[in-house]
Amino acid sequence: MKRSMDQADRAMDIIKRISIFAKAGIEGEMKFEAISVAEVLEDILPLVRYELAANSIVLTREIPKDLPEVWADRRYLEEIFFNLIVNACQALKETGKAGEIRVNARVDPNTHPVCDIGLPKHTPGVERVFVTVEDIGPGISKEQLNRIFEPFYTTKALGTGLGLYVVKQLVEKNGGKVDVRSRMGEGTSFTITLSA
Prior knowledge:
Blueprint: H1 2-23, E1 32-35, H2 37-54, E2 57-62, E3 70-73, H3 74-93, E4 99-107, E5 128-135, H4 142-145, H5 163-173, E6 177-183, E7 187-195
Parallel strand pairs: 2-4
Antiparallel strand pairs: 1-3, 4-5, 5-7, 6-7
Helix pairs in contact: 2-3, 3-5
């Protein structure tokens, strides 16, 4: 019952945010703070646990204990990781086999002191943190890769085409970027770059 209520609340929240995107008012409600990536992943686990179990998917996390906190809006970061993990679950579900989703994080060793445009100056220098969500699924063709961040574009029969679009919008609003790599028959990885 609690899981259903949480999912319903999240669905309403997503609808509200899509409306906000349409009105171009998202910046006004953002709240930047130092956030632990490990804590955010822990917070969304209850929301994806059923989907993982129902499809015999193992979620592994490799987050260094000394990983710097990232500078972002907590609710939007939760939604980014939630959408990426659910997207990976759906990709693995298409294979009809048990699978694995890996989430790992690291600091860019070549970080230089910078101040990203649009972010508050909270430290003299900004480290870049990479977080990758990877599935060992069917992969995405080159043609599809060029369009996966377009609104309402989907390769799934029951997809809305909004999950990855929302991910890209939220990552960019948090001053970061998202990259995707995929090989047919081998899987897909999404890497989020954020400032620490």
